[in-house]
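This protein record is not my work; I was only asked to verify it. Where you disagree with what is written, explain briefly why. This is what I was given:
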Amino acid sequence: MIERHRSLESQTALDASRPPVRAEVDPVRRRIFTFFSLAVLVAGVAASAVTSAWLPFQYNSNLLLIGPLLAMGFLLAEQLTIDVDVKRVGWTISFTEIPLILGLLTAPFEVVLAANLLAGLGAQVGRRAATHVAYNAGVMCLEIAVPFAVAHAVNQAIVGIGPDWFGPVVGTLTSPLISCGFALAALHVLGGAMRVSAGARLAVNTLAVGLLNTSVGLISYEVARSTLWGWLLVALVAVAVLGLYRAYSGLLREQRDLEALSDVSLSVARSGQATARGPSDGGEAAEVSVTEWEPVAERIREQLNASRVVLRLRLDPSGEVSTLVAGDPLPEAAEQAAPSALRDDPLLQLPGSHVRSFRTLEAPEEVRRALRQRGAYESLVVPLRGASQLLGAVEAHDRVSRWRGFGRADVRLLHTLASHLATAMDNRRLLARLRHDAYHDPLTGLLNRTGFREMAAEELRNGRTAVVLRMDLDVLTTVSEALGYTWGDRMVVAAGRRMREALGTDAPLARLEANAFAVLLLDHSEDEAHEVAKHLREVIAEPYPLDKLVVEAAGVAGYVSSAPGDGEPENDVDTLLQRADVAVRAARNGEDGVRQYAPAMGQVFLRRFQLVTQFRQALDSGQVEVHYQPKVSLPERQVVGAEALVRWSHPEYGRLDPDEFIPVVEATGLVDALTSFVMECALVKVRKWLDRGLRMSVAVNLSVRNLADESFPDRVAEALGRHDIPPELLTFELTESSVMEDPERSMPVLRRLHALGVVLAVDDFGTGYSSLAYLRQLPVDEVKIDKSFVLGMGTDLGDMAVVRSIVELGHSLELVVVAEGVEDDAARDQLVAMGCDIAQGYLISRPLSEDRLEAWLQARTVRRRGPRSETVLTLVH
């Protein structure tokens, strides 16, 4: 037969669509169902009364044994059931037809009715689970009364024609049809009716199962009655059928459990897809709402055949617990007492990770109180434990059955489901954290460049007008170098917090790199964007208290508006960021520190981009040349060498100033190729001089990247050996700032170069650190006085004092002192008086190409014998 109670206890899942968080039946339909249940009860009582009057009770002493046996048979038939799901409604196929036909063949109507009611309703009332007593009692009466009436009528019709068992067989087959028909009617009343074709197929299947059960019961009765030791044969067959049932039921249960595990894992994975749709602006990783766990809770409830499943999940980063109910709603008292933390409820004090079972009759008082508060008789509770924390808990209340509670199989299933659910939640949290970290800056918690690009691109695709504003925090590098990077990081965090508070939560804010921030202003005019930029400058310019210090800071801002129209190339986020960067560079030269991007600024960026992309080809095609500026010893005026200076004759832009393209080359990593090119040209030139008997050196400038390259000394040694050049004829000039930018990497490179024998010179001395402590640390042979001091000697006594101090400092350290920027005789005479060793400048010569240098040497110098019989070139007046 089809179990009635289970189908009605599953009423909260009767609708074809997924229920809401609390899937409740319409109150109107509940009232209609109440009247329907009363009508069924009245019909059942009336049918029982009519049948009892039609079939008078005949007492038999055997009834004292048959009655209890029938009751046990109905109970056993209900225990050995097969659960199936039809249209998301739980149905239980049992073997009730077997004790029913035996009752029709051996006992009066009243005894069979009492046994059925005792086995069904008695167990429900005993476990406080009889929520539809009127309906179930009425159907139980009809399931016994109608079969007895039909059996008696059929036997009267076929008296003398057919066997005595034909009437009971026909009557027994009406019982499952009655149960199925009333269950379908109840579903219709509750709003979950099937289509006619589906209902008909269910009825046919039910009749087929009923016929099989009826046949088994009839055959067993006839064999036991007419065959010697027939009861033993029936017992053996029953044992075999029982074993077959248990095996089949176990396989069916395992299959459904595996399906449930798969469904739960997929539901969790789908609910986690909301966290993978894009970056959020700051804060923790986005979490899904509690309603998105509804399919998980409902699937667990269906699989456990529970009247209610409660999920308590920690979805909020603060640790607050969200509660979701599938099935019967929680009583109002339980809603009001919902724990904000899992430890606040006696049912939820969950050590370990095992399933705990609670029953009202066996539990301590505080547990019974918690169960009564939930309106439950029985509960299974299991924690959801992740790798490092308690993620929540699952409660299953009151198994939907006539009399059975949760069994061992249910406990095992819930434990496995909880393990899978906890693992899936942990994995989803990890993926959300990884995605959050991929889109956010770890220091400030703001969006990073990638997150800003994603968010801005999404808004631009939606056709919204946007302004990309870039804000750079100045003095950050100075603070980091003076106080340490920890203090610089604190300034960045403070600046980001100030801008976040000034902008509010609507405007996406990102930290692009060390001191650069970006803001996306949606639906702002250019005037409004300008005001926002000015306000942000004022905000970040406020003093920063760092421990006992107060640091003054400033900022510059540049912004650009997206072009109208969706999908325009100029609306590319990278393009907007580049243009905002160009505007920031222009703002550094402005008065108010805020500039809007103008197309003319883009030409500067385009030119730089072209220079970078064309530089390698320029080296190979001969556009880049090396010019030489002679250096003369004082006071002898002997030409001791030259400084190699690079020049680029661009086919489109003409002669380029080194200050324009060398910083770009250094920033893009092409400086290694440039240094190798200049050094190769310089060594070729020195080799030519040596072949002519002239011993003159060439100085080559080094960059920060060269000093950070551990393989650079090896390349220098190889080049010197290949050209057979004495190392002292090669000079490398470097700035103090380039050395001190990363002294741990540059100092070993300098020591190796010094060990080769090449000459090391500190260029632009007086403009960097310029302290005796730094100078003594460097393995150098020369210092070059910056030309700004040499040029100012004639008009500024301070500059003259600086030059004099540098000369005296260099000589005290046994260093050669070179003065660059010598442009008149007075400056030269002053340097001679101070004891400066070498002069370089326009007074002697401008930088010359190789051919013009040779012509200059022939015209301006004379060859003489030096003190050691070497050939020297002396400058003539």
